Amino acid sequence: MKRPGKKAATDRSFVVALSRGLDVLRAFRPNDGLLGNQEIAARTGLPKPTVSRLTYTLTKLGYLMPVPRFEKYQLAPAAMALGYAALANLGVRQLSEPFREQLTRETGGAVAVGARDRLTMIYFGQSRQGVVNVQLDVGSHIPIATTAMGRAYIWALPDDERVALLRELREHYGSRWPKIRDGIERSGESVAKYGFAISAGEWQDDVHAVGVALRLNDGTGPYAFNCGAPAFRFTEERLRTDIGPRLVAMVRNIEAALGGAMPQSNKEASKKLKPGGKLARVAEGIRS
Question: Is the pLDDT of residue 15 over 90?
């Protein structure tokens, strides 16, 4: 788990103790069950004595529940209440549900909506009907850099935010970055040409998916949707000619229902992000 950067650490308005406490809560993942101080320290990068003080404090505040028999902790109802409150306030989750359910029935794929959480996307809405090999649910994290949802999100960001994120990804992936960067660049061309990003076996070998970003005019987001299935069911040809266009249409309908400004046409987007133009310049800025 990435610790706050130097800029955050030197920001006089940034409360480091609060950041560390939240990092402890973030260390708990779906299906984790119990975590001890040593495991939390390993996940957060915090010293174990610091973790011990933080877990004690969070227990006193009701956000962690100790399990003395195992000398470990689990999230308490107060922590879960924060997550449920956040979900309840995400109108896009409730409004998109019938659209997601319909696309799931039509395609046989799993359809989800997510938002950025550091260098991952976190699911906050999911629809599926017994889709094999795609066992994700609300609260699941997937990488931004190699998934269709994440790549759609990347290319929906304002230029300065995109460049900042790509630099974080370059630092995170190190020697693996050139290959990952190439996939992100290809997805930018796909978004410009077709309106959707593709990940065909680049996150998991046997999973193919498309992703489309949702832009709203209320200052929230962007969010991103995906539709994925096992590779044998969603071939790359089907992603481009069937699943991708269906997902674009679904997201645009949701966008209109939520009052979001309609995005530029694919023709306008291709002018903005055409190879050799702005797309190449953005990518070039993260190559060194």
Answer: yes
